[in-house]
Design a protein that fits this description.
The complex is a heterodimer.
Chain A (H helix, E strand, L loop, with lengths): L5 H7 L3 H12 L30 E7 L5 H11 L2 E7 L2 H7 L10 E5 H9 L3 E2 L14 H4 L5 E2 L2 E2 L2 E7 L1 E5 L22 E4 L4 H12 L13 H14 L3 E5 L2 H9 L5 E4 L1 H9 L4 E4 L5 E11 L5 H11 L2 H11 L2 E2 L4 H8 L3 H4 L12 E3 L17 H12 L1
Helix pairs in contact in A: 2-5, 2-15, 4-5, 7-8, 9-10, 12-13
Chain B lengths: L1 H23 L1 H29 L4 E2 L6 E2 L5 H8 L1 H35 L2 H16 L2 H12 L4 H8 L11 H25 L3 H9 L4 H30 L2 H6 L7 H11 L3 H24 L2 H4 L1
Antiparallel strand pairs in B: 1-2
Helix pairs in contact in B: 1-2, 3-4, 4-8, 4-10, 5-8, 8-10, 9-10, 10-13, 12-13
Classes of the chains: A alpha/beta, B mainly alpha.
């Protein structure tokens, strides 16, 4: 999903807001014990199946455009007899609204992004899945077996699919000494040469930087900011505004900006770096010392799915190394299955390392995956700034 | 034979009352003619618009993003109190006005030449030239400007090859101003041309007979008569710029947000339709005032 089709990407992240809000209502009455107990979603007690029966002959999916490409769907249909009918959604919002009423019996699964997940989970539109029915689950990167955006209190509301980091992309001509810190994008000497992702979640990038550069603020999680931390972050971004040439909305936009030399440094997805490099440009990306933010997609099962067997067969199929590798290279994202690395190399030498598909577990300590900013902080207090404020702040930063 | 005659008579008798009815009540015919298109317009277009705008007076529950149907003015209060929105509205209106002015200045001599100087053949060619860009996609035309204006684009390349410093106007207000002025120029040329063509030659001859030089005749006779046409064109250039949100995304720099961009992100991203509706009312209000003024200036007679 995360590629050139970008307006959609831009838009879908937006659902974080709604997710936050719903999560908030859900969490509202919870007093956290030990700091990790979240409220139980409505479908938490729905017992997932323990075996997968024969396919029902059809599978209705809501997916990002191209997530059901012929190059791997045809083989699935031949294997299982499940005919895949996919509707491509343009945004996370559209996905959430299509999934209303647990998919209304019309939809079986949705390939939701981290920003839509909580919303789907807390509105009861998706239900727990049994990871034991996904043979490749054991080969997943440990982090993606139970990421916070799709697993609550140990219950899995979907099976992770692909992910990507938000890296620091720069021109190696302008920066012969590679930047090692996000400080470069806030440095006045780069005035007019900086770009940033035009989306409220970018605030988390700045918060992440402040968590290291100004430890006195006490930022622990870039998605859980107190008012004071939030104000400091927004102030940093407003200070950065004059340095920005243009905020990018689509991957293609950013590639054009770098290619034409309008900007020389800024946050990007691996996809952009790979495209720029393959076009022969002098560009490189890095995960700075402060770490980076990232995103992850999940196949989720509709509460009222009418083809559950086909759904499990499909999830198991797209989790296999071969299909994971195909999809990763098709979209410029990274598979969650560690075994996919060899398949990626077979398809395109060097791609496994390029996309960090072989990253060690410690790598994920440096990636802070997108999740919905909600008013309830991890310690159970309600002192955190919720996503609606993130959005308002982003408007005033970029206005 | 008898049957046929009787049938024809009956038919005539059937038609006659309707015709005489129309004759006696002339409004009935116009009503019958107008009702289908008007019903379409009112039901499909206005009703849906009104339904959208009504939501501007509602809010969303910040917890569930469900719309709460309680009448209030919170959305409008936010637009007025938040400096960012005032800035965005001001920027949108300001640039729309600037583009309109630019197009009027560019279009007038061109339209004058087309209407009063060019031969019939040249006129056709110029008409085609004006309309030709409209056949190409809006996006293609905006992207072509990006190729011209960006850092390593045609403009900087040309400047540097003749030894001048690069202009670097890509992704700035200047870029937006140029692109908007280019894109909407045909919408100014055509009404201006239509107005200029309608200025009777006899008036110019009369002015000449009275000893006015050509420039004087243009200033005192042609310009006032063609002005409503320019105002008519300005309705297009102003409203089209006011409502646009694609050019700001593509050629604008940091801080190029238009009203349309905020509406778009509130509908698509934040799922806050009430606020988007409230903000959408702003250009509607501005255009209402603009149209009233335009009507005073006789723009509608010029269309």
């Amino acid at each position: 999903m995360r590629s050139t089709e970008a307006p959609a990407l831009w838009v879908r992240l937006g659902t974080v807001a709604a997710a936050a809000l719903i999560a908030l209502t859900a969490c509202g009455s919870t007093t956290s014990t030990g700091g990790s107990t979240a409220a139980q979603p409505p479908t938490a007690n729905t017992k997932p199946p323990t075996t997968v029966g024969p396919g029902e002959g059809a599978l209705n999916l809501i997916a990002w455009e191209g997530y059901t490409d012929k190059s791997w769907v045809d083989q699935f249909t031949a294997n299982t007899g499940c005919k895949v009918n996919a509707k491509y959604a343009g945004s996370s919002d559209e996905m959430v609204s299509l999934m209303k009423g647990g998919g209304s019996g019309q939809w079986d699964m949705v390939s939701a992004s981290g920003d839509a997940d909580l919303r789907l989970i807390y509105s009861g539109d998706v239900k727990p899945m049994n990871t034991a029915l996904i043979p490749d689950f054991n080969n997943f990167q440990t982090y993606f077996k139970a990421p916070a955006y799709n697993t609550i209190n140990g219950i899995h509301y979907g099976i992770s699919l692909q992910w990507g980091p938000n890296t620091l992309l720069y021109s190696t001509k302008k920066f012969p000494n590679p930047p090692t810190s996000w400080a470069a994008v806030y440095d006045a000497s780069n005035k007019g040469l900086v770009t940033a992702y035009d989306y409220p979640i970018t605030i988390a990038d700045a918060a992440l930087y402040l968590s290291k550069s100004q430890p006195s603020l006490g930022i622990k999680d870039p998605y859980e900011l107190t008012q004071k931390q939030f104000d400091a972050t927004v102030a940093l971004l407003k200070q950065q505004r004059p340095l920005i040439k243009k905020y990018w909305g689509t991957a293609g936009d950013e590639i054009t900006l770098f290619q034409n030399g309008d900007v020389t440094i800024g946050a990007a997805w691996p996809y952009q770096t790979i495209q720029l490099k393959s076009a022969g440009g002098a560009f490189a990306d890095t995960i700075p010392i402060e770490g980076a933010t990232g995103w992850g997609d999940t196949w989720m099962l509709a509460t009222n799915a009418t083809h559950p067997n086909c759904a499990y067969l499909w999830t198991a199929y797209v989790s296999t190394p071969k299909v994971q590798a195909l999809q990763a290279l098709y979209f410029g994202e990274t598979p969650v299955n560690t075994k996919a690395c060899a398949e990626m190399e077979a398809l395109q030498a060097g791609s496994c390392a390029q996309y960090h598909a072989d990253a060690p577990g410690s790598y994920f300590n440096t990636i802070h995956f997108w999740k919905t900013p909600i008013a309830t902080c991890a310690d159970g207090s309600k002192n955190c700034v919720d996503y609606s404020q993130w959005q308002t702040a982003w408007t005033s930063i970029t206005a | 034979m008898a049957v046929t005659t009787a049938g024809r008579l009956r038919k005539n008798r059937g038609a006659a009352p309707l015709q005489s009815l129309f004759w006696r009540l002339p409004w009935l015919r116009s009503a019958l003619l107008l009702v289908p298109p008007l019903a379409w317009f009112v039901l499909i277009y206005l009703a849906s618009l009104v339904l959208l705008l009504i939501t501007a007076f509602w809010t969303i529950d910040t917890f569930t993003t469900q719309i709460i149907q309680v009448w209030n003015l919170d959305n409008f209060r936010l637009i007025l109190s938040e400096p960012a929105y005032r800035l965005i509205v001001g920027r949108t209106v300001g640039l729309a006005a600037l583009v309109t002015l630019t197009d009027a200045v560019l279009a007038f001599p061109f339209a004058y030449f087309m209407a009063r100087v060019a031969s019939r053949r040249a006129q056709t060619i110029l008409f085609a030239a004006v309309l030709l860009p409209l056949w190409a996609s809006y996006l293609a035309r905006v992207y072509s400007w990006i190729l011209i204006l960006n850092h390593s684009g045609l403009l900087n390349w040309s400047l540097q090859s003749i030894g001048l410093p690069p202009a670097n106007i890509g992704y700035t207000y200047v870029a937006m101003w140029i692109v908007f002025s280019y894109i909407w120029l045909p919408f100014m040329i055509i009404p201006t041309y239509a107005a200029l063509e309608r200025v009777p030659e006899t008036l110019l001859e009369a002015a000449a007979d009275l000893g006015a030089p050509r420039w004087r005749a243009v200033r005192d006779v042609v310009l006032p008569l063609a002005f409503p046409g320019v105002v008519a064109g300005s309705i297009f250039t102003f409203s089209l710029t006011l409502g646009d949100y694609i050019t700001p995304i593509l050629v604008g720099g940091a801080g190029s947000t238009f009203i349309g961009n905020v509406v778009y992100s509130n509908v698509g991203v934040a799922n806050n339709v009430p606020f988007a509706a409230a903000l959408a009312i702003v250009p509607v209000g501005i255009m209402a005032v603009y149209l009233l003024v335009a009507q005073r200036l006789g723009a509608f007679e010029a269309l």
